[in-house]
Specification:
Blueprint: H1 3-13, E1 18-21, E2 32-35, E3 40-49, H2 53-63, E4 68-73, H3 78-92, E5 101-109, H4 113-125, E6 128-132, E7 140-144, H5 150-153, E8 160-165, E9 170-174, H6 181-185, H7 188-191, E10 197-198, H8 200-205, E11 209-211, H9 221-232, E12 237-240, E13 243-248
Parallel strand pairs: 3-5, 5-8, 7-11, 9-10
Antiparallel strand pairs: 1-2, 2-3, 4-13, 6-7, 6-12, 8-9
Length: 256
């Protein structure tokens, strides 16, 4: 099943939405016009395969009888940011009503696709993992807007990005900087997902995340840390650079 068909079926069967395919033309257009009975959505679907060279490298390792290891930093990449940016452009060119929700849907495939999924989310929120070493019970988790974020940059033109994986994973990343933030949170698309919603404002209120909201130079991580230490009243805060790790091995097949 191709990605567009998968997304259309998911919207219709899981979310019970009315989905209309937007005809392709010589102009840039999103893929779907969606209606939930009250709200309208424009959705552009993108597919991003993880580095295809990983598959070739794995087969070479297997042919030599070796274990194949993957180690990927979970920092964002420009090529992934370009996927979101391109989807946003296609939606923006088709918007005629300010109340219309704008959603980019990125489906991740290939080896280590779940690393790609996390790298996309990192770029959306400019997030880092931070750890407070002041006590064993202190905070350790996501800090949103630690660095430059696509959601802030595109706050008027993207309400959310749905990131899905080839094994059925789904995360809807809500843009809390959007002028439609409150109404989008109340939409069928969000309310139909009991899990898998990323919302920095809600997570901070629940004590599950930190947020950088002030005028801080994101080019200077130490200044951002100083801001966080002051905001959250701690002096032992550090950034932990996270990585995605996988180990693959070939198991010989024996005839019975």
């Amino acid at each position: 099943m191709d990605t567009e068909t998968l997304v259309k079926r998911t919207l219709e069967e899981h979310f019970n939405l009315q989905v209309e395919k937007i005809p392709e033309s010589d102009k840039r257009t999103p893929d779907f016009f969606v209606f939930d009975g009250i709200n309208e959505y424009l959705i552009e679907v993108k597919e991003k395969e993880a580095n295809p060279e990983l598959g070739e490298a794995r087969e070479e390792a297997f042919s030599r009888g070796e274990i194949f290891e993957i180690s990927e930093a979970l920092a964002t990449k420009s090529v992934l940011q370009n996927v979101v940016r391109d989807g946003r452009r296609q939606i923006k060119a088709h918007v005629t009503d300010d109340s219309t929700f704008r959603v980019v849907w990125v489906h991740c495939t290939g080896l280590a696709y779940d690393a790609t999924l996390e790298q996309i989310i990192t770029g959306l929120y400019g997030s880092e993992t931070v750890v407070d070493f002041s006590s064993d019970e202190a905070f350790a988790g996501t800090c949103y807007y630690f660095g430059f974020s696509q959601f802030f940059k595109y706050r008027d033109s993207i309400d959310a990005v749905m990131v899905t994986g080839r094994k059925g994973e789904a995360t809807i990343c809500v843009n809390n900087h959007s002028p439609r933030y409150e109404s989008f949170k109340a939409s069928v698309l969000v309310q139909s997902m009991p899990v898998g919603v990323r919302d920095p404002i809600y997570e901070e209120k629940e004590g599950c995340a930190f947020i950088v909201e002030g005028e801080v130079d994101r080019n200077k991580p130490n200044e951002v840390l100083s801001y966080l230490k002051e905001k959250y009243k701690t002096d032992k805060l550090n950034v932990m650079k996270m990585r995605h790790m996988e180990v693959h091995m070939a198991v010989p097949h024996r005839e019975m």
